[in-house]
Design a protein that fits this description.
Radius of gyration: 25 Å
Strand content: 25-35%
Strand order of the largest sheet: 1-2-3-4
Oligomer: single chain
Helix content: 25-40%
């Protein structure tokens, strides 16, 4: 009886994906909040890219000549930090400034939301609405 155990391609793929799951979780993208002594909360935001490949063969369909391979790679790039202070949220990018128009719009969304909130709060205060 042959002592070499044959590993089907699906087992290789499952093992590779399991290892990727171990390397990447939701905390890799949105990091754990860090609160400073003066009450500022900083939340790191990252971009995660990953890939994997698997292969297999049995060299003439015999168990003792089976060969297989699996590989995976993960890349984590810091993108920005969410800074929360006194109820106001700001996005501080880590990378170069936005290149395309869509990137610029996405970068401006938190600032526009803050301005709208402040405007609404000011109008409510003027009218005596709380």
């Amino acid at each position: 009886m042959d002592t070499i155990e044959k590993k089907p391609l699906s087992d290789l793929m499952e093992t590779t994906m399991t290892k990727i799951r171990e390397m990447v979780d939701s905390n890799s993208i949105i990091g754990e909040p860090i609160t400073t002594p003066d009450g500022v909360t900083v939340i790191p935001v990252s971009r995660v890219s990953f890939g994997f490949g698997t292969g297999g063969s049995d060299y003439g369909r015999t168990v003792d000549k089976f060969g297989g391979a699996g590989a995976a790679g993960v890349k984590i790039d810091p993108v920005s930090f969410l800074i929360i202070k006194d109820g106001v949220t700001r996005v501080v990018p880590v990378a170069l400034p936005a290149v395309g128009p869509i990137d610029r719009v996405l970068d401006l969304v938190p600032e526009v939301m803050d301005r709208v909130e402040n405007f609404v709060a000011k109008k409510k205060e003027e009218k005596g609405i709380y």
